[in-house]
């Protein structure tokens, strides 16, 4: 007879000790299941397709709205439920976005209507600079330079007529990109509102959610860090263009516009500062040579300070050095052009975080 408190020989006894979900190999890197490996391959394919099919604007706009909803909704949750808080955040963001776009459009129109004399001044000073340089360059090169402002305008109109087809295609591309951005914002808002917390998912869905969450985290780190850097750079540039430079030389034409352009273009890591600096020095050169030299010296100092900012803010966020971002941007630009330059810091930050989580780097 078998006693009741004794287990029969054919009864299986389960070992309740915890076992590792993903055993590590000798190098310490975790072994991936087929589902996880498939999710990584799908993530790489999705990143490539985003650039190949020109959907970067939709992706970035959707991620931005998604992150903003999740940043605002906790502040509203104190007075209502989580679902209603996310809806309120979406409504608030929609109101702000529409208001900002309307205000920016009206402001830009009024600004350029008010600054048209400034544009004429830039043309006149550019012409004076060309006349001064005409005697110092070879005649073969001087023959291509315009004689006066009228000829410069005629050549500009002629170029516009010659490239009318390209301008039309550019307008269509801009309209398509704007449409993608709007659709991306709507998708980001829908995902943020419809997200269910604590939902049990199957393995493949769980792996996909992990990839998307890690990409969203990389996006948040890069974008908000770059906004800080661009704001600091714009503040220094504004003080220089609007306060310091007029004290020692003269006010640059379109100085306020340059400040706005510095902030917007400065959202592009590294290359944005180079573009804005080039514009400032070029316009300062139309005023006087000392103003251009002073601007160049100032911008070199600011650029050096920004290396420390990039290393401390962006590099600290994604654990990457400046040269790593530059290499990623160069490779992505060679492969996908300007969209590759914009996407490179975010994509590189995501890939590196995935490699770090796998203990491969």
Strand content: under 5%
Question: What distance lies between the first and last C-alpha atoms, to the nearest angstrom?
Answer: 61 Å
Envelope shape: elongated
Number of strands: 0
Helix content: over 70%
Q: Which structural class should the secondary elements be placed in? A: mainly alpha
**H and E string:** HHHHHHHHHHHHH
- Largest pleated sheet: none
Helical stretch count? Answer: 13
For the record, the count of structural domains works out to 2
Q: Provide mean pLDDT, rounded.
A: 77
Stretches where pLDDT is under 50 for at least 5 consecutive residues are: 1-21
What Rg, in angstroms, do the CA atoms define? 28 Å
Helix and strand topology:
Elements (H helix, E strand, L loop, with lengths): L33 H19 L3 H21 L5 H33 L1 H19 L4 H4 L6 H14 L1 H31 L8 H46 L6 H11 L5 H17 L1 H30 L3 H15 L1 H20 L4
Structure write-up:
This protein is mainly alpha-helical and 361 residues long. It folds into 2 domains: 45-196, no CATH class; 203-361. The chain is 78% helix and 0% strand. The chain has helices spanning 34-52, 56-76, 82-114, 116-134, 139-142, 149-162, 164-194, 203-248, 255-265, 271-287, 289-318, 322-336, 338-357. Helix 2 runs parallel beside helix 7, helix 4 (116-134) packs across helix 10 (271-287) and helix 8 crosses helix 13.
Characteristics of this structure?
361 residues, mainly alpha, 2 domains, 0% strand, disordered N terminus
Q: TL;DR of this structure?
A:
Helix content is 78%, strand content 0%.
């Amino acid at each position: 007879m078998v006693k009741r408190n004794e287990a029969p020989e054919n009864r299986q006894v389960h070992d309740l000790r915890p076992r590792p979900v993903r055993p590590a190999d000798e190098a310490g890197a975790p072994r991936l299941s087929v589902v996880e490996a498939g999710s990584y391959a799908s993530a790489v394919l999705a990143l490539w397709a985003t650039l190949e099919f020109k959907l970067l604007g939709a992706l970035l706009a959707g991620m931005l709205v998604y992150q903003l909803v999740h940043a605002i909704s906790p502040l509203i949750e104190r007075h209502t439920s989580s679902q209603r808080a996310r809806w309120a955040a979406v409504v608030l963001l929609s109101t702000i976005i529409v208001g900002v776009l309307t205000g920016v459009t009206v402001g830009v129109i009024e600004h350029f209507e008010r600054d048209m004399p400034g544009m004429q001044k830039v043309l006149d000073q550019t012409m004076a600079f060309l006349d001064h340089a005409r005697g110092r360059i070879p005649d073969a090169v001087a023959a291509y330079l315009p004689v006066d402002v009228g000829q410069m305008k005629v050549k500009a109109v002629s170029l516009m007529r010659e490239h009318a087809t390209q301008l039309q295609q550019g307008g269509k591309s801009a309209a398509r990109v704007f449409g993608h951005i709007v659709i991306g914002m709507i998708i980001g808002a829908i995902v943020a509102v419809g997200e269910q917390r604590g939902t049990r998912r199957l393995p493949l869905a769980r792996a996909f959610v992990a990839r998307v969450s890690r990409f969203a985290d990389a996006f948040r780190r890069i974008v908000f860090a770059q906004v800080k850097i661009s704001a600091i750079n714009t503040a220094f540039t504004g003080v220089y263009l609007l306060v310091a430079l007029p004290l020692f030389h003269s006010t640059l034409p379109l100085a306020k516009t340059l400040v706005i352009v510095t902030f917007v273009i400065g959202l592009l890591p590294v290359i944005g500062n180079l573009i804005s600096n080039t514009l400032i020095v070029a316009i300062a050169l139309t005023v006087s040579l000392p103003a251009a030299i002073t601007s160049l010296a100032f911008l070199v100092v600011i650029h050096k300070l920004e290396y420390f900012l990039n290393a401390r803010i962006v590099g600290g966020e994604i654990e990457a050095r400046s040269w790593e971002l530059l290499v990623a941007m160069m490779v992505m630009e060679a492969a996908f052009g300007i969209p590759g330059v914009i996407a490179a810091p975010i994509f590189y930050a995501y890939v590196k975080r995935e490699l770090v989580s796998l203990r491969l780097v």
